[in-house]
Design a protein that fits this description.
Blueprint: H1 2-13, H2 15-51, E1 55-59, H3 65-77, E2 81-87, H4 89-99, H5 104-109, E3 118-123, H6 129-138, E4 142-147, H7 149-191, H8 193-201, H9 206-247, H10 257-286
Antiparallel strand pairs: 1-3, 1-4, 2-3
Helix pairs in contact: 1-9, 2-7, 2-9, 7-10, 9-10
């Protein structure tokens, strides 16, 4: 209890220094929360597109079922196919009618004979799409091949770039946080030099003297983590309706409250580590 009282007394006596320490911690954990949301959201978008048929091959009208089955066996033999679905002309007509249910004129003009049968294919890895597409292009019974190479590869590139930028920024902000926190705690230790000397003379151990400063750094870290997480989460929840409308059915949002609380717990753990490290560096430097 004495450590807690001493820590609170140190914070009250220098509110501006405490505010500066909390602010830098808040910025650090705001950045961590923001980039975590971006990375998780990007990963979910990529997983969504990967789960959809990535390659669609349309057959010629004169393609026989035996030739189609033979092509399917050749594709499966590559070991690069995650799933393959045959869509007949009648099934294609059913899909067409569902998509154009509000336009009777279009429904009357199209019959099953007009629409081609097709394969809807998902590959094991994104990189396999090019190989499968080339095989389909060379097949004499295939009239056209469509695949989402540009969409998924662009998303993958953006996610990789976000990850690298986020890691660099978080590392830099963490180092700045440690430096600023160590400086602030060091200034406080310097201001209490006489008190520390008196405590040593009456028999106080080094760790008894150091613990309030270590606790102070941890308190700054926890407050900064909670505030940074709260700001980022509030921003996410506020923009969720607009983002859901923009994503148009891609199941990224709303975010799970349990996942948000798990993120808060992880950030508090990291905040305790940052606060303890920065304060420990300060007490080693200034309390001897």
């Amino acid at each position: 209890m004495s450590f807690t009282k001493t820590t609170w007394k140190n914070i009250r006596r220098s509110p501006y220094q405490a505010l500066a320490a909390i602010l830098i911690m808040t910025l650090t954990f705001l950045a961590i929360s923001f980039f975590t949301f971006l990375l998780v959201g990007s990963s979910k978008v990529i997983n969504y597109f990967e789960s959809k048929p990535q390659v669609t091959a349309f057959f010629r009208n004169d393609a026989s079922q035996s030739d189609i089955n033979k092509l399917e066996n050749q594709l499966r033999a590559t070991g690069k196919i995650a799933s393959i679905k045959f869509v007949s002309q009648n099934e294609a007509l059913k899909i067409y009618r569902q998509q154009n249910a509000n336009d009777p004129l279009l429904l009357d003009l199209v019959t099953a004979d007009v629409l081609p049968s097709s394969f809807e294919i998902s590959t094991v890895q994104i990189e396999d799409m090019g190989t499968i597409s080339n095989m389909l292009d060379k097949s004499p019974i295939v009239s056209d091949v469509i695949y989402q190479k540009d969409v998924v590869s662009t998303l993958t590139t953006w996610t990789s770039a976000i990850k690298k930028i986020g890691i660099v920024l978080v590392v830099l902000l963490s180092l700045v946080s440690i430096f600023i926190m160590a400086t602030i705690v060091g200034i406080k230790i310097s201001q209490k030099k006489e008190d520390i000397e008196i405590m040593k003379l009456i028999g106080a151990t080094n760790w008894y003297i150091r613990w309030p400063f270590l606790t102070e750094g941890i308190v700054y870290g926890i407050i900064g983590a909670v505030v940074g997480w709260a700001i980022a989460t509030a921003g996410l929840l506020y923009t969720t309706p607009f983002l859901e409308s923009f994503l148009k059915g891609i199941p990224v949002l709303p975010a799970s409250y349990s996942d948000l609380l798990i993120l808060l717990g992880l950030e508090i753990g990291f905040a305790v580590f940052l606060g303890a490290v920065s304060s420990f560096l300060a007490v080693l430097r200034y309390s001897n």
